[in-house]
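Hallway conversation turned thread

IA: we were arguing at lunch whether anyone had actually written out DUF7344 domain-containing protein end to end. Turns out nobody had. So, for the record, here is the sequence (190 residues) and right after it the structure tokens. Reply here if something looks off.
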Amino acid sequence: MLGTHQQTSRIDPQEIHDILRNSRRRNVIKHLESQLTPVSVRELSERIAEIETSESPAPRNVRESVYNSLHQTHLPKLDAVGVIRYDEDRKTVELREPARQVDVYMEVVTRYGFTWAGYYRTLGVLALVTIVATTVEVSPLSPVPTVLCASAFLLVFAASTAYQLWTHRWFYLRSLVANVSPASDDLGNE
């Protein structure tokens, strides 16, 4: 069963929340984000079973249970919404462009438990206060040149942005590959 949504269609926020309500669907999306090529359902189910049990390899009964639930429930649902392309005949799965809409909701919170928006807001306020303090020569910052302080904070902002881009590198690379060969996506929608 191939997805019925076009690549540029908007996913209803209620559907996004329904997708994210299930940890197995979240894990499917996370795993597929790091893959440039389609993944077999078997490989995907083994990886999800490992995540859920924290064992490698996961027990056979768990792998089979995950495989069945992915095949019967989760993959068809994600395909119908347009987040993935699920080829039931070939038993392969790949992420589609509309997954970015879901990813926004998944990545709002960093792995350390706070939001990126909160991180950047805090960093910006800290930078502003520190730069003002160095400008008016508040001790112990009075010997630090304002330019050096501002440069240090710019470096931290740049490193943070680079980290965010690096953690989503597969997603961006997949988008570039998809833009280079649009005919391959058109074939899958026929």
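OS: looked through it. Strands lie at 39-40, 84-87, 92-95.
IA: good, adding that to the notes. Residues 60-81 form the longest helix (22 residues).
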